[in-house]
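ARCHIVE CARD
CATEGORY: sequence design from structure
SOURCE FIELD: tokenized fold
FIELD CONTENT:
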């Protein structure tokens, strides 16, 4: 049985950890909907969704559509302390990506998966969206 998680007790980085998985799941769902792809090709195509740089660009597309609470959650993640910045992204891109992941983690843990799906479509476009 699944354990209930109180998102109010989660750190920003814990929400981002969950959100990373949510974004990856939505991306994989979109990618396999195209059918007939090799796994290595799917992994290459998934990078357009899961890298800090691509997520940072996605932030620009979703920010105008966020509620006040969603903006608050995004900022909570973006401003998280203890974030290790990888060499593959700038600090700004990585922090914005962490904010986006935090938001998706929050939406998942509060059960608002429809909103997560809608924001994913805004963030990455609706092309090739299946299911």
């Amino acid at each position: 049985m699944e354990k209930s998680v109180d998102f109010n007790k989660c750190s920003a980085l814990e929400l981002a950890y969950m959100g990373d998985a949510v974004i990856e799941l939505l991306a994989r769902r979109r990618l396999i909907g195209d059918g007939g792809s090799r796994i290595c090709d799917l992994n290459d195509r998934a990078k357009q969704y899961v890298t800090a740089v691509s997520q940072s660009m996605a932030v620009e597309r979703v920010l105008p559509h966020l509620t006040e609470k969603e903006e608050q959650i995004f900022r909570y993640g973006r401003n998280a302390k203890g974030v290790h910045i990888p060499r593959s992204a700038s600090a700004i891109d990585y922090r914005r990506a962490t904010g986006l992941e935090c938001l998706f983690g929050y939406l998942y843990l509060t059960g608002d998966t429809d909103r997560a799906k809608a924001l994913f479509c805004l963030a990455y476009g609706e092309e090739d969206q299946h299911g």
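CARD ANNOTATION: Helices lie at 12-32, 39-50, 52-62, 68-78, 91-109, 113-124. The chain has one domain: 9-124.
SHELF: design records, drawer C
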